[in-house]
C-alpha cells in the first residue's frame, strides 16, 4: 500500500473509532454490535468521500542559489493542489506549523528532522480542512489553488543571517525562503490571482500574521487579498511561577535567527525585537484584512506559556495540561485568568470590520487543518456557525464575524485535546477491545498502527515545548 494512502487510511480508522466511542456512549438499544459495525461502515464511507488524494511535494531548487534554504541547507518545499473551474485564479497559501528553535543546540536537533530539512519530509501529504478538495467539506475554497508551505527554518520565516556557522552547518534564512516560495508561486499563476489568502497554523499562524502585508504587496493590484491565522496569536504572559519564560524564549529566537530586520518596523521602532514576535504588539497596525481562529484556552499556550515544565518542577500541572477535565479548581481559575489576558491582548484588533475573529473556549490548538474541527457535522460552533462558514462568509464579505465564546466549559461542541497516550481507559473502543467485541485481525491491525483510541488524534505534530 502507498505510504500516503496508508497514513490517510490510518486517520480514517482513528476517526471511525472515535465515532464508535460517541455512538456507543449514547446508544441504549439491543443489537449493539450490529449498530457498532454499521457506524463503522457509515464512518468509512463518509471519510473516504472526505479524503483528498495525496499531494506531492515540490522542491524549490532555484532558491538554493539565493541562499534561501532550510536549516541544513536543503531547498525549501511546498505541496500544490491546482485549482480548477471558478477557482482557477484563486490561491490559498497555508504555512505549516512546528514551533521554533532558540539556539544552536535546539536548531541542530531540528536540522535532522522534517522541521529543519526538506530531505526528511514526506513526499506526499493529504490535504484536509481548509485545504480539502471536496465542496461538501470545504465549500468556499475547495477548487482554489491550495498550497501547503513546508516549515524548515525554525523562526516563522523571519530569519536572515548571511554567515553560515561552519562548525554546525546551520543556515538561518527563513525570510529568504518565504520570498523564494512566493516568487515561484507567482510564476506558476498566482501572479494572475483574483482572490488570495495567506493562512497558517501555530508557528505558521504567526508567520501568516507577520507576513500578511508583505504577501499582499506581492500580489496583483486589484486582487482581493486577506490572511487567516490559526492558533498563531501567542501572548506575552507570566507563567505559574511569575516569570516570563516565553518572552525570554522569543528574544532568543529573534537573536539566533537575525529576525529583527524582518519584523514589523512599526513595532521594532518602539520595542525590543523580541517583543515584536508577539502579535499583540503589532497586529493592530496590519493593513490587510485578517481573520483570527484561536482557542482562548489554546492548549499549546497553556502547556508552554502558562505552565511550562521549567515553571512547574514538581509536575503539579501535568494532569491538567494533559486533560482539562482533570484540572483542579485553582488551576481552572488560573486558566480563566489566562483567558482574560488573551482576550485583552487580542482585543486591539477587534475594532475594524475588516478583521474577523473566531475565539472559542475549547482546549485546542490548530483547528483549520483538521476536517473534524473545520467542517463536519459535530465541528465546534459559535453563534451556530462553524469555522469554515465564518471564514468563508468573512472572506467573501457576506457576513462579518467577530465572536468570542463564553468561558470554559460552556461550549458543548468543543473538541478538547487529550494528550495522554495512556488515557484511554474510558474509551468505549478500549472497553470493546478487552471484551473481544471486535474481530482479532482488526484489533491487531489497529494496535500495530498504534491507534488504540482516537482521542488526541493528529495533534502531536503541533506540540513543541518552549
| CATH class wording of one domain | Alpha Beta
Count of helices?
15
Any idea what the shape is? globular
Strand-pairing-aware structural class:
alpha/beta
The strand order across the widest sheet is: 4-1-2-5-3-6-7-8-9-12
Please state the average pLDDT score.
86
- Give the second-level CATH assignment, the architecture of one domain: 3-Layer(aba) Sandwich
Tell me the strand percentage band.
5-15%
Description of the molecule:
This is Pectin acetylesterase. Its EC number is 3.1.1.-. Belongs to the pectinacetylesterase family. One of its GO terms (biological process) is cell wall organization. It is found in: Secreted, Cell wall. The protein is an alpha/beta fold. It has a domain at 51-234 and 287-295 and 346-404: Rossmann fold (3-Layer(aba) Sandwich). The protein is 34% helix and 12% strand. It contains 15 helices and twelve strands. The chain has a ten-stranded mixed β-sheet with strand order 4-1-2-5-3-6-7-8-9-12, with helices on both faces. Helix 1 crosses helix 2 (32-50). It is globular and about 55 Å long. The protein starts with a helix and ends in a 17-residue tail after the last helix. Residues 1-8, 22-32 and 421-466 have low confidence and may be disordered.
Amino acid at each position: 500500500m502507498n505510504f500516503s494512502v496508508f497514513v490517510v487510511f490510518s486517520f480514517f480508522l482513528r476517526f471511525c473509532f472515535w465515532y464508535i466511542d460517541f455512538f456507543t456512549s449514547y446508544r441504549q438499544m439491543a443489537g449493539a454490535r450490529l449498530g457498532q459495525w454499521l457506524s463503522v461502515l457509515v464512518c468509512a464511507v463518509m471519510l473516504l468521500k472526505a479524503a483528498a488524494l495525496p499531494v506531492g511535494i515540490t522542491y524549490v531548487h532555484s532558491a538554493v542559489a539565493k541562499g534561501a534554504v532550510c536549516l541544513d541547507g536543503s531547498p525549501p518545499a511546498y505541496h500544490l493542489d491546482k485549482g480548477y473551474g471558478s477557482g482557477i485564479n484563486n490561491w490559498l497559501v497555508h504555512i505549516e506549523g512546528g514551533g521554533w528553535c532558540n539556539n544552536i543546540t535546539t536548531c541542530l536537533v531540528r536540522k535532522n528532522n522534517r522541521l529543519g530539512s526538506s530531505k526528511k519530509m514526506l513526499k506526499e501529504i493529504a490535504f484536509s480542512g481548509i485545504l480539502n478538495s471536496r465542496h461538501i467539506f470545504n465549500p468556499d475554497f475547495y477548487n482554489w489553488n491550495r498550497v501547503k508551505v513546508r516549515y524548515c527554518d525554525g523562526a516563522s520565516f523571519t530569519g536572515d543571517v548571511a554567515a553560515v556557522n561552519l562548525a554546525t552547518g546551520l543556515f538561518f534564512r527563513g525570510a529568504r525562503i518565504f520570498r523564494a516560495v512566493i516568487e515561484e508561486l507567482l510564476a506558476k499563476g498566482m501572479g494572475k490571482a483574483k482572490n488570495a489568502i495567506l493562512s497558517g497554523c501555530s508557528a505558521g499562524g504567526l508567520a501568516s500574521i507577520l507576513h500578511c502585508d508583505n504577501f499582499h504587496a506581492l500580489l496583483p493590484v486589484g486582487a482581493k487579498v486577506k490572511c487567516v491565522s490559526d492558533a498563531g496569536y501567542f501572548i506575552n504572559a507570566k507563567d505559574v511561577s511569575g516569570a516570563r519564560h516565553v518572552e525570554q524564549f522569543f528574544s532568543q529566537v529573534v537573536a539566533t535567527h537575525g529576525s529583527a530586520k524582518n519584523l514589523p518596523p512599526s513595532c521594532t521602532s518602539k520595542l525590543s525585537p523580541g517583543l515584536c514576535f508577539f502579535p499583540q504588539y503589532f497586529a493592530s497596525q496590519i493593513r490587510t484584512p485578517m481573520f483570527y481562529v484561536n482557542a482562548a484556552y489554546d492548549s499549546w499556550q497553556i502547556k508552554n506559556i502558562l505552565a511550562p515544565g521549567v515553571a512547574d518542577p514538581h509536575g503539579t500541572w501535568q494532569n491538567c495540561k494533559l486533560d482539562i477535565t482533570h484540572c483542579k479548581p485553582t488551576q481552572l481559575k488560573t486558566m480563566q485568568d489566562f483567558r482574560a489576558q488573551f482576550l485583552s491582548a487580542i482585543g486591539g484588533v477587534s475594532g475594524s470590520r475588516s478583521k474577523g475573529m473566531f475565539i472559542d473556549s475549547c482546549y485546542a490548538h490548530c483547528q483549520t487543518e483538521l476536517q473534524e474541527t473545520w467542517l463536519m457535522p459535530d465541528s465546534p460552533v459559535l453563534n451556530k456557525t462553524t469555522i469554515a462558514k465564518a471564514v468563508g462568509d468573512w472572506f467573501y464579505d457576506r457576513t462579518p464575524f467577530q465572536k468570542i465564546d463564553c468561558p470554559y466549559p460552556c461550549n458543548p461542541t468543543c473538541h478538547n485535546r487529550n494528550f495522554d497516550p495512556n488515557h484511554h481507559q474510558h474509551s468505549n473502543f478500549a472497553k470493546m477491545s478487552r471484551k473481544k467485541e471486535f474481530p482479532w485481525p482488526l484489533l491487531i491491525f489497529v494496535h500495530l498502527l498504534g491507534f488504540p483510541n482516537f482521542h488526541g488524534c493528529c495533534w502531536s505534530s503541533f506540540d513543541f515545548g518552549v
